Amino acid sequence: MAADTADPSSPRISLITVCWNAERTIADTLRSIDTQTYRNFEHIIIDGGSGDSTLAIIASAPAENRRVLSGRDGGIYEAMNKGIGLASGDIIGFLNADDTFESSDSLETVAAALEDEAYDGCYGDLIYVSNQHPDRKVRYWKSCAFEPGSFGRGWCPPHPTFYVRRRIYERFGTFDLRYRLAADVELMMRFLEVARIKTLYIPRVLVRMRLGGATNKNIQNISRQNKEVLRALADHGLRVSTLMFWASKLVNRLGQFVKRNR
Predict the structure, then answer these.
(1) d(CA 22, CA 32)
(2) Backbone angles phi, psi at 47, to 5 degrees
(3) N or C, which end of the chain has less CB nearby within 10 Å?
(4) What is the pTM of this model?
């Protein structure tokens, strides 16, 4: 990768990648990061003590702005919290080992959106792709601007597209490890519904995500995750109709398959 020629006046992004035994996909993730046109970012990799060739693949793609921490941890959300603790950027986001940026200007789009200090964070759209054939679109997750009460209707932004200022984590906390499958949804709920941070929706695809992650690999995990989301809503004292929640989730999910050819 070329030397970092970042503009020091632009916001610095901390991009965190969590991985474990990701030898099949990590090279694609690194390639999509290293070809970003926006250069004012650091890349922090938190590896869970991979036993395959993941670390060797990472070592074969050195970069001046990349740091790697490897060791056993308590799972993806604990690893994400480690990454947040190491972050030095003004803005923090995640791109994990099953994900790639949609285009080379994805980070540039995020940085441009958050040049306005009035916004605490931003997010965009996401495409789910086949695990074995990442060029094959499976679902199109089109988001929208946040409105109070949205989480109670089964809505949330795609977390791999969610970028917020580091000060928001410092003020309102990191991932709550009591939620094993929905800590990302709970965190965004806490930031948007409870803390009411100001976010900007970017109406374009920022990330491609392979199907088969912890929360979407089977119907049982999807059901468990949504039950955790309902528990998080209750924990935060947010009123919700369980029937409306499940109905909205079903309609939204079906809509993602309809939009997949966009």
Answers:
(1) 15
(2) -100, 135
(3) C
(4) 0.92
